[in-house]
Structure formats: C-alpha cells, structure tokens
Amino acid sequence: MSVSVVDQRLYTVADWYDAEALLSTEERQVLGRLRTFLDAEAKPLLAEYWEKGEFPEQLARPLIDLDLMEPADVTVEAPARGIYQGFRIFELARTDASLATWYTAQAGLFRTAIQVGASEAQQKEWMPKVIDFSLKGVFSLTEPEHGSDIAGGLSTTARFEPDPGTEADGGSWVLDGAKRWIGGASTADVLCVFARDVADGQVKAFLVDRTAAGVSLEKIHGKTSLRMMQNAHITLDNVRVSEAMRLHNVNSFKDVAAMLRAMRSDVAWIATGIQAGAFEAALAYVKERQQFGRSLGSFQLVQEKLARMLGNITASLSLVVRLTEQQSWGIYRDQDSALAKMQTSLMMRETVALAREVVGGNGITLAADVARFHADAEAVYSYEGTHEINALIVGRALTGDSAFTR
Question: How far is C-alpha 249 from the geometric centre of its chain's CA atoms?
Fold first, then answer.
C-alpha cells in the first residue's frame, strides 16, 4: 500500500476501529514519510544490529532530519498534537522497540524534563535545541540499587558550594552517585541527572555535560531485550555543575512525578506499537506458510490466536487514544497514565507470545521478525514503572489508601 496517497489508511488491519481517523491529512503525510523511511532504510538493518547488540547509528541523522518532533508542514505556532505524537511513537514501535525508545528518549523523556523542570528563561534557550536535536539529552533517574523505590530511595547527592566572595547563587553544585539503565547516554550532549540536595533532602535536577570531569559511562552488556538500545551505567564522582544548569522548577520529587505522569503515556503507546508489529509479522507469516497442504492461517486455532491479538491491540489503542485526548485537555492524573501503561504492557506480553506461538519454531529466529518484538517486550513491560507499581498507583486512587509504605 502506498503511503503517499493521503486518502488511504496507514494502519489497516492493526487499527481495526480506525483510530487513525483522528489524524489530520498533514499528520498522516508526515507519518507516511516516516513509514517509507523505516521500511526502506531501517527494516533491512534491524536483525543484524539486534543480534550484534549495537545501534545502527547511520539511521540517527536521517531520522532526525525527517523533522518529526514539530513538523513544519503540520504546525506553525501551536505544538504538535498529542494524537500525532502518539501515532509517531506507534509507528516507530511497530517497526522496532529500540528505535522507538531511542527517539522518545529525546522527544519524550528529555523534552518533558525541560518542559516541566526548566524555568521560562531556560526553556526559551534550550527548547528549540531539544526540538532540532542540537542539544541531545537523556533522562537519568534510575540507580543501581533504586528503581521502583526511587522516590524515597534516590541516593545520588548534590551539594551546593558558593563561590568565595559572591552571592549564594554564584556557586556550583557537586554531584556524587551513580545511574543505571540510561538509554542513549553515550551519544547525548547532556545527562539530565536527578540528585538529592544534602541541605534540604529534596530532589533537584541538573544538566550535566556528558564529557565533564568525574563522569564515566559503561555500556551494559549481556542484555536479552532491547539489544540495539545502548544502555549505560553512569558514575558521578565529584562532578561540578553550575547553578545555571540546574532545572530551576525541580525542587522536590513531586516535580519529578509530574514528568513521569506525562511520560508513562509514551510507553503505553510503545507497548501498543510493539503489539501491532508482532501481530502484522505473524499475520504475514501464517498467510504464506503451508502446513498439511494448506495455509497455516486457515486453521481454526491459528485464527483464534490472531483474533485475540487483534482484540488486545484494539483495546490498547482505545486506552492510549482516550488517555491522549484527556491529556490534550490538560487532565494529567497519575492513575490514568499508570492504568494505560499497566494494561497495555500486560496485553503486549500476551500478544507477542501469541505471535511467537503461531509462527512456531521460526518464531525464535530473527528472520520472521516476531522474535525481536517477543524479546523486546520484556523490557517495555518493566520500564517507566513495573506492572506492580502501576497497579498500586491505580489501587491508591481507587481506595484512597497507599500500599507503598506501611
């Protein structure tokens, strides 16, 4: 199907109820250009680089040059609509989870950190550079010993040291600690590091030059999921950061929680896109594969599994589309994004398992495409809040009683 014809749908089978109809013609044109690039340039490389555990860096600049974050032919004054941003993530994830994670590290996590955490003056300086990728950054929150309990357990420290003979705000901060699982850190310009101020015990945020003295990065090896995404273990040893590089609107973990509230919806879109990619690969396979003298797709048990996969995708799309609509109206609630991330990730796990199942033994090889989605889903199931953490956020909203601490 040609994506250059704007009166044709981009997502036919996977988008059963036509949520794409919410997109404008211009938005679909941009997504069509993305689809063309991913099909022609990215897909031929994915199996090789996934197996090598390396990111195909030759895709980075062309992907940036597609002008996806704030497309000039879609927006003039207003920012890109949430529904467009969601389908942009969906399109990336239905091709590859690492590509989606890599792009949203900048367009989702880092951009949200600046939007929520930076002062008006800082945003004016930094946001244009974030949008055109001339300032590349990563969100550095998770620590080696603290993931789900990061709100109370964050142990990276920040200590302010005034410059002699100047006002208090004329000094610099000294950061010590470590961060882990930070995707894209090795190619970022700055690391958005969250640290606990030793003076008041509150969480602050800093843009740390990746090459600053005292910063060291180590690639995490041995992963069985998101193998193309380059995750780093970061050590911060007496790292100095100026007050000007502190995000001035981050003064407690409540400010960080506001970022997470927005970012979980991005991960729910990724989980939905992964399902679409696995389903489409499995569907194509069973239509071509012959067993017992007939198409594998003609068997009742296979068709039942295909129908369950489609049901999961349709339900997931309904969740993320409605959540995105609410957020476009300014409604941001922890329990809403947590519910979407929890449920889409749960359905994703079943969908990729069913896709691998109908492809049979070939489902564990990279040649059939399904194996990448099957393995990568495990990482998405856990990041931006595990199933249990998101369930407890929803449970707290339902009962009024927090189960996190006793």
Answer: 23
